[in-house]
What we know:
Layout: E1 2-6, H1 14-23, E2 29-33, E3 37-43, E4 46-53, H2 58-66, H3 71-84, E5 92-100, E6 103-112, H4 122-125, H5 129-148, E7 151-153, E8 161-166, E9 169-174, E10 180-182, H6 187-192, H7 201-214, H8 219-237
Antiparallel strand pairs: 1-5, 2-3, 3-4, 4-6, 5-6, 7-10, 8-9
Amino acid sequence: xxxxxxxxxxxxxxxxxxxIPEIFDKEGTTIYKSRNEIKVFDVNGEMLNVKSxxxxxxxxxxxxxxxxxxxxxxxYLYANELLKRGFSTxxxxxxxxxxxxxxxxxxxxxxxxxxxxxxxxxxxxVKSIEENKELIVxxxxxxxxxxxxxxxxxxxxxxxxxxxxxGDQVQFCLVDLNRMHFxxxxxxxxxxxxxxxxxxxxxxxxxxxxxxKARNADPEKCIEHALLKRRKYWERYKRKRTIxxxx
Length: 247
């Protein structure tokens, strides 16, 4: 059994798109491989990004079959919702779910591959405020616009926030969308969104202050809350990995 959604704009490539799960291991160019694997495929001259999700553990197979949408399905739905609300994310192309013995087994999310103009925030996030003040201010403004639109990316981290410069403007694009919330974003919750950003404490303080003032909130209370969430997250993180900056 399978469930397949394909963007109507890609109707002419439908047969090839549906064949991707069969050829995934043999074709395409791998650009990321860990728990999940991401490959790029050339489909009629257009580069498509194909994310193959790892087979979930049994309890999650049950959950994704009967209780909540799978990561691939959420990625497809949330990408459409982001675009509908006027925010940038790679165009959703398809979502394919495959079941075994009635439970979800393999799933794929396909989207348009972004141009090389877009970069992650990893390199700039470890630089000083002075070196990146324009970009930092733009990032806070972007977060404010997301929250005002009722969009909360639960994994708002350097690898999931892409940017490029167009003239004197900074454009942002969100990826890895399966962990998102749509609905009102309180000031406290909004301040929690800074917890996964890289950089020293002074940068987080600077950003949270800008955010709090824009929302007519107490900067000190917001900073206290944001730093608490940040410490908790990075203390867990460093148990398994090295952190390239001071907490």
